[in-house]
Write a structure and sequence with these properties.
Radius of gyration: 23 Å
Number of helices: 9
Order of helices and strands: EHEHHEEEHEEEHEEEEEHEEEHHEEH
Number of strands: 18
Structural class: alpha/beta
Shape: globular
Strand order of the largest sheet: 1-2-9
Largest sheet: 3 strands, parallel
């Protein structure tokens, strides 16, 4: 590639990187966009779940970091959901409610009989009890961020690993100059932002399998002669759970799953580098279910599922089930938190020209799948960057 001058270098090709690159490139800024593996990140591989989260979570976020801006504006900007008054209509991400599946009405009836209240929209910002899942699919096809957002003006470099961000001291400040290969040099700490690599959290979860009482009715996806059904991942992704030591894997189509999660965990883990080589794996301590609070929540999740299915279990039985079978939703976050390492415009404190925009900057857990939150966060960051860039250009 010939040498060029770029206004922005965006490292990482996930949801947030695609949004920021797309929005800023439309303002005729020059870009290079290195990507290590594949463009679009989690949106190219996840379930497609589209859950905004609750207004109380975002209000607490704003209070914690000192930012009174409302998230709803940026949620609307990214969404394309017709006939929904509290959503956007012309954004790049088309959303839809999940399709019904044969056991759906029966399971819903069980939830209602267990004492929950049904609501029309899980993304209204209020705390719903039971609502149909919203997903970002269009005509049954996934929407990767790199395709949903216009990347035509972005110079994209795939199969590219950034080993280091050069930092240059300018007087009393430190300025980021751009990525460069790390040549085995000893890492020198030029700044010491608080809590970097600390306070890691994830959403621990349980997948609870059930056998249908009448398998001959073919009500579970994967069963022989199952009726034609064009569903999305939340209806069909877990049809069998092979676990070492758990005996034979259930026959395809012989079980269905009720999943549950602790969305506001108290447990905190950490991420550390293992060497100066960017190719070496980091040292990750997730510490999931590390507190009594989180373990209590997971017991409650299973108890509630059992209540829906009209059964029960003792505390000891629940703990014995949780220990080997608990998973996470792969929502690791908060290792470079806004309000600690970053300011409210995603700028690294103590460094000029360096921002971080991804789930690592969340200052607290959100009661939702993080996909919609990351898109909205990136929309806001792009807007902030664009305002700053335009201000300097007009001076």
């Amino acid at each position: 590639m010939p040498e060029s001058t770029f206004d922005y270098i965006i490292v990482g090709g996930g949801n947030a990187g695609c949004v920021v690159a797309s929005r800023l490139s439309q303002a005729l800024l020059n870009f290079i966009y290195p990507v290590e593996k594949f463009l679009s990140g989690g949106s190219a591989a996840n379930y497609g779940t589209w859950v905004r989260g609750y207004e109380t979570d975002f209000n607490e976020w704003g209070s914690l970091v000192g930012d009174e801006r409302k998230s709803e504006t940026h949620f609307r900007k990214e969404e394309d959901l017709p006939n929904a008054s509290e959503h956007g209509f012309h954004g790049p991400i088309h959303t839809t409610t999940a399709l019904q599946w044969p056991l759906g009405p029966t399971v819903k009836k069980g939830f209602l009989e267990a004492g929950v209240t049904g609501v029309a929209d899980a993304n209204s910002g209020q705390s719903p009890d039971l609502a149909r899942c919203t997903e970002n699919w269009r005509d049954g096809i996934r929407q990767p961020a790199g395709l949903a957002y216009d990347m035509s003006k972005v110079h994209v470099m795939t199969n590219t690993l950034v080993h280091k961000v050069l930092l240059e001291k300018t007087g009393t400040s430190v300025k980021a100059k751009g990525p460069s290969q790390l040549k085995g040099a000893r890492i020198e700490s030029l700044i010491d932002p608080p809590y970097v690599g600390k306070n890691l959290h994830d959403h621990p979860a349980m997948m609870i399998p059930w056998k249908p009482r009448h398998p001959e009715k073919r009500l579970v996806f994967g069963a022989t002669n199952f009726p034609n059904f064009d569903g999305n991942p939340n209806e069909w992704i877990y049809t069998a759970i092979p676990v070492p030591g758990a005996g034979e894997t259930p026959e395809q189509g012989s079980v269905f799953i009720i999943g549950g999660s602790c969305f506001l965990p108290k447990s905190r883990g950490s991420v550390k580098i293992s060497s100066t080589n960017a190719l070496d794996h980091p040292i990750i301590d997730p510490n999931c279910l590390g507190t009594d609070h989180d373990r209590c929540i997971m017991r409650s999740v299973i108890r509630f599922a059992m209540k829906v299915m009209n059964t029960n279990a003792a505390k000891e039985e629940l703990d014995a089930f949780i220990r080997p079978y608990a998973i996470t939703w792969f929502h690791p976050a908060r290792t470079a938190a806004m309000g600690a390492a970053l300011d409210t415009e995603c700028r690294v404190k103590g460094v000029e020209s360096l921002r971080v925009v991804d789930v690592s900057i969340l200052p607290l857990p959100i009661s939702a799948h993080y996909q919609a939150t990351v898109y909205a966060l990136a929309e806001q960051a792009a807007e902030d960057d664009l305002c700053i860039s335009m201000k300097f250009r007009t001076k």
